Fold this protein.
Amino acid sequence: MNTPNTYMAGPDEDGRFGIFGGRFVAETLMPLILEVEKYFNEAKDDPAFKKQVAGYLKQYVGRPSPLYFAERFTEHCGGAKIYFKREDLNHTGAHKINSCVAQILLAKRMGKKRIIAETGAGQHGVATATVCALFGLECVIFMGATDIERQQPNVFRMKLLGAEVRPVTAGAGTLKDAMNEALRDWVANVHDTYYLIGTVAGPHPYPVMVREFQKIIGEEVREQIMEQEGRLPDTLIACVGGGSNAMGLFYPFLDDRNVQIIGVEAAGLGVDTDEHAASLTGGRPGVLHGNRTYLLQDDDGQIEEAHSISAGLDYPGIGPEHSWLFEQGRVEYHSITDDEAVASFQLCTKLEGIIPALESSHALAEAEKMAKTMSKDKIIVVNMSGRGDKDVNTIAKAMGTVL
Amino acid sequence: MSQTRIAKRFEILKAEGRSAFVTFVTAGDPDLETSKKLLSGMAKAGADILEIGMPFSDPMADGPAIQLGSQRALAAGMTLKGVLSLVSDLRQSDDETPIVLMGYYNPIYSYGVDKFLNDAKAAGVDGFIVVDLPPEEEREFAIPAKEAGLDFIYLTTPTADDERLEKIGRRASGFIYYVSITGVTGTASATSSDVAAAVKRIKNTSDLPVAIGFGINTPAQAQEMASVSDAAVVGSAIVKKIAGNLDENGKAKAGLVDDVLSYVSELAGGVKAAKA
């Protein structure tokens, strides 16, 4: 395969990263998708818009988020130095807010009055409900019935923030079904509604737009690690469901060929079982939710249900740019099981006094594995994409504890 | 190229001075045998064109009725290969009624576009409606389909401006399907005056027949829509009739086929009563 001069040039004007991405949506949505693209292209180069976003990120979200040297976690692993990028310290407790602040400002520019979003773990739903409260916009969050059950604290937070949470009972009642239902709502309400997609997936321009709004994570890491270590890290690790926290961290480093980049998929009960969410490891290219990407599907092209203990990773697809980076070989994709993630969750909580999100715990578990194989002068940066308060019930259940 | 079944059918109907009645059901809903009986009785019951759903796990543009129909068909074992073999069977006894397959792109992509077009043509399919393939993605399937001599039927919607209608009109083949509401299938209904205005706009961009769908639930609505267009499509309402004839285990009751076909006859009566 030819190695491109840069990994940072995509997507092309059709929204493609190689063969991945695109605009596979119902005709009703096309005019609006094109309008979103037009507004995004204008806004991203508009100094006034950039200043507005930067202001909210600093004063409201609390950026920059720290890059923290996890000394005891490092000692425990007994190898490379491990740093945490503390997205869990953002307002609302995860990286999702970065893109929400920017997208809500875009929706306002477009004159939209009503915001819809899908959510899995509820982090994106909470972040969306938060910015809707901040700007006084109507907010409807689509959430799978199964996810509502396992993420009760976040459901209540969304309601407190004034959002309507619509349970989706179709399919397995998880993120994929919530996204279907959000798309159906959007088709019916295109005139006044903006669909605030939480990840680097969906029809063009969403994958590039969300990446642009999340890449601040990696940009900050570059500066912070230069300040603290005087050099770039050897390895970056982030969990991947749709893949927005990972794209945010990875993108600014894609052309630093000496930086190893690892995305961590959710292996659920194991990638050799039917119960996992590792689309790159266990899927093949297909078309769903507006883009071509790797998908978990059967021989007939029917989409399969994903499984992960972490609701935020419980999706049978992945952002198209990840599929491209995977095929290019620029990013390695590994996988971590439910049990490994739960163990790292507990370890991090005890050693560092940081309760990580179950999603981020997948990245932590991979860091544990990698650090052991690396010498002490090496540096790993793990994206601590969110905090785990929302997961306490799930962990209790996994540990057999009744709360 | 010889005239396609779709073109021929519209030509005959034009000579008769009436619009076409297009029925939609999903292949294999609620099971293969019942579905075969339903589809082979449709033309006699008054359907002029058969639109047959290729079931998909994630029908993003469909409302609850068609979602459930799709799920029933998949649960009963329908596959894309099964859809084509069903079409082959129908063609044994009816070589004239146009058959249009409707669905989503992933099963086709998974099957392989070229192989699918070959097999569909051999089975006797005349055209396709693929919901998640707008003109922007025409290289994927619409262009290869037309090159294979099969029609790719574009959808157009109330959200399209003149420029977009032009874009679709230039590319369309077979007929143009006007989605009369902004919404998923089987929900709201449009007014005939809005639809008449839209049809006029579409006709400025293309000479092809214009079909109206989404939200036609009664013979009266079918008549109304047929009177301002070249074809009326009824889907969700028929699929709901199927659902209403299932027992508590989701199996077809004895009277299902008769009940659904007599409803199709009523709807056809509405269309035939319309002035084209």
Remarks:
- The CA atoms of residues 116 and 123 of chain A lie 14 Å apart.
- The interface with chain B takes residues 14, 22-32, 170-171, 176, 180, 183-184, 187-191, 286-290, 292, 295, 297, 299-304 of chain A (CB under 8 Å).
- The first strand of chain A starts at residue 16 and ends at 17.
- Chain A has a mean pLDDT of 96.
